[in-house]
């Protein structure tokens, strides 16, 4: 039986999870996979810090060089997060002929292709199943199960924190800020929640998925991004009347040779499979031209679920050590049709206004929509007779930039007291 | 660029689907996977039969030897179904150093280990993603994404025909036989529907999944199997009152060292993720000790979805040609704890009786349950005052054999006019 020596860079939540899995399931992995996994060294900032887990003290080190220069270590798992110094360390490991397994979505989104090139040049692997949707094996499935498909669409709930907040807001009728502070107390949201609630986390993840699915390096700067901070219980309530549930969706679509990638709060029909994804669960919905619709559902975060993906990648890397898997981004290399990035994506939109209750207001607003080619599918008017009344539109498919122009005109109209919210609708 | 020559055994629905995918997406596969797929020979019964697809006539053959003896063909995809002659052909291909890809669930369920041994001895691969859940990559995920997990439970909706029938019965209040004959007319059910409606198809599939998950060769003869023919609209209606939806579930559980595998109509809570799986969709719900709950959802049949799995296996087999993946069944080889097969599984049960409306009947029946240690969770009594009235119980967890004994006594009780149905309940 072979033994593989592994090193960890960082030892937070996910690293500890991966360590526990190797400790507790290592014997079974040896039996079923024919490989013994040994965590030989762990890079930490403070080797004397008290930890909740029993460890041989000697495996801890605060010197990266001890790992980079140890020829016995063939696989390094990175848990530091962020771009630097993780990137430097990973490049150094790859150049020292060590395969790297990582959960670092920001790094892979921004520098995945570059790192893969270094890995390939050094004959080692770069694996990042844990970077998207925790234990749900969406990376593997895109790379190794849907190879025969042209992927046309991805819609994912890939940030657990925002899904938890939106579920609570929807089911308990509570405000965003109220639920956020509860989530922070319970440890479901970070003390600084920006990366989650502003959609950066989901943006990095859809960047990785869409790059793989479309075989094109998607630049994070090309991704439309909007967080959930402006969603109110009123939006949710009116959405429900229209048969919609709200989710923060990460969406990537390819139409002909045009790609669009976006992250924003989205209304979806209540009977859509993604509407059943509640609390901190994740799900990724994919459309392939052969396979049709597929959905993968599971825990998108947590020490053991994400650790499961890390250990799976370690085992995969071991099996593929003589021929690692690399993701192809051929469209940027000019071999197939050139893909164009689409900034002016199309969607249906939910538009919530507060207007003066006067005759002719609806007609005026409809006129602005018409001016920019936005056609209206349905209207809700409420509480007639008060001074300020809600007016809700759902449009047919419209270009986002046309919507923006129409809304800009509408906002200037004196009978419109407030443009409350604009939320895309996907089916 | 390398080219791989492939041969098909049989050319029905799925074979045609795989052929179309290779024809239509072959260029993209060449770009992204670096391999050209060429279907070089197709074994058919009648080479002159008119077909709906354009083909070079010369690739058709009715002589298996032309395939077995062609050294240029390195991968053979089998679409014949059933045990013989498929098994003979596959063994012959493996011994001629050809990797085999198959959608044949009955064959893999009954002889998968034996065939894998032949494959391993000949240094070639045996892949069968398409045998379970069509395009949904559950085999790959069990083998290559959840390796770090001890799998405790599988619950699957893995027969599209029965799920279609049960969905229609539930949503439209129609009888089994009525929906079945409609399904047959629409081509959703076979002219002889036995394999689907009696649960054989699901049995073969759960046999494959549980063997992989528990690393134990599960004998199909050890699987409890019950079809959906006895389910009535009354059962569905009373189940709904209790908050349940009905599905034909294939279930495999491992508790300590004991394994149980069963296929039967099952009530599940309406908010269970599997309750959202409607019509002919498939879904597999898995519990791993690290990853937690995972669900995979998609089309379980059809030419292109199943073809997608076949072509994926072909590409995988190509990449792994120097080191094929084999599934380990180590528990039968004595290396880990010995697994025991459990015939007397435990479940909650829904029991529907028709009884005389007389004082004391409920108490008498409760007495029989008590005698065999079956405790009652809830009771519904309906239509009091008529001669024959329905009486529905839901039990707490009970052993199946104890239930059978209690029901046998209850059936003999003169105030019990009919034991209408007994349906397990899973949460």
Automatic annotation (TrEMBL), chains A, B:
Q: Which positions in this protein are listed as binding NADP(+)?
A: 9-16
- One MF term in the entry's GO annotations: homoserine dehydrogenase activity
Q: Which cofactor does it need?
A: a metal cation
What PROSITE patterns would the database entry show?
ACT, HOMOSER_DHGENASE
Q: Name one GO biological process term.
A: methionine biosynthetic process
EC no. given is 1.1.1.3
Annotated ACT domain residues: 350-427
The record lists the catalysed reaction(s) as: L-homoserine + NADP(+) = L-aspartate 4-semialdehyde + NADPH + H(+)
Which pathway does this polypeptide act in?
Amino-acid biosynthesis; L-methionine biosynthesis via de novo pathway; L-homoserine from L-aspartate: step 3/3; Amino-acid biosynthesis; L-threonine biosynthesis; L-threonine from L-aspartate: step 3/5
The record places the active site at: 205
Keyword entries, A-Z: Amino-acid biosynthesis, Methionine biosynthesis, NADP, Oxidoreductase, Sodium, Threonine biosynthesis
- Spell out the family assignment given in the record's similarity comment: Belongs to the homoserine dehydrogenase family.
**This protein's name:** Homoserine dehydrogenase
The organism that produces this protein has a lineage beginning with: Bacteria, Bacillati, Bacillota, Clostridia, Eubacteriales
